[in-house]
Amino acid sequence: MIRASILATSLLSVVLLATNSHATILSMAADIEFSNATAPSGPAPWLTVTINDHGGSGSVTLDIAGSGLSFNESVSELSLNLDPSLDPANLVFSAPTKSRAFTTPTIATAANAFKADGDGFYDIDLAFAVGSGASTFRSGDSIEYTITGIASLNALSFNFLSKPAGGHGPFIMAAHVQNTGGAGGGSSGWVTDSGGGQVLIPEPATCLLAALAGLGILVVRRRIRG
User: Fold this and answer.
1) Tens of pLDDT along the chain (226 residues)?
2) 111-138: burial string, b at 16+ Cβ within 10 Å, e else
3) 171 Cβ contact partners less than 8 Å away, ≥ 6 residues apart
4) CB contact set of 191 (below 8 Å; sequence gap of 6+)
5) Using the 8-state DSSP alphabet, how is residue 8 labeled?
6) What is the pTM of this model?
7) 70: burial class by Cβ within 10 Å (0-12, 13-18, 19+)?
8) Are 117 and 161 in contact (CB under 8 A)?
């Protein structure tokens, strides 16, 4: 009887968590070169940026992956936007989790302070190592941060376009890719998401199925333990 009560309580808790926690994910895929320079030679998207609030506010995870870079191509700079009603100077970035021992980028934040190839002003700028070799952010590399510092912060806080400054744009993000143009390299280009990013909200039914699967594991464990 006690076990049945515990399981019922566990089921209710898990279901409530699944149905009330609607994570919002902002996904950006750099698939076009916008500065009329040399595009990366690998398959687009060359860089992906994902921001996930995990159904809460005040904290998001930022994931950056060099998904389609090739040869010696590397990302030297990444610029993002923030809700104009929020102060980017208040953002706090955790120590990163990295896939490899490349040089950790330097992060700067200020409202409309960073210009991408003359095509707009951005609020967040990550400066990676420039050149070639192990210090750079290359194909297959990834880095993840947890961002806090603003109570209302969520994934949609980054779903804004750069402040226009002539040229192309505005864009939701911009990244500078070095050594483009094939095996010879030597060129560079600015890339962005041609679709302006994509907002994803997992279906409650999917969350519920995941919750029920978790409960099933709990039941099996209890049976094994006797």
Assistant:
1) 545 444 444 444 444 444 446 899 999 999 999 999 999 998 999 999 999 999 999 999 999 999 899 888 999 999 999 999 999 999 999 999 999 999 999 999 999 999 998 789 999 999 999 987 889 999 999 999 999 999 999 999 999 999 998 888 899 999 999 999 776 668 999 999 999 999 998 765 555 555 555 545 444 444 545 5
2) bbebbbbebbbbbbbbbbbbeeeeebbb
3) 34, 116, 119, 120, 161, 162, 192, 193, 196
4) 30, 31, 32, 33, 34, 39, 40, 46, 47, 174, 175, 177
5) H
6) 0.81
7) middle
8) no
Q: How far is CA 204 from CA 16, 22, 208, 211, in A?
A: 11, 7, 6, 10
Reduced to 3 DSSP states, what percent helix, strand and coil does the chain have, rounded to the nearest 5? 20, 35, 45
- What residue spans of the chain are helical by DSSP H? 2-20, 204-224
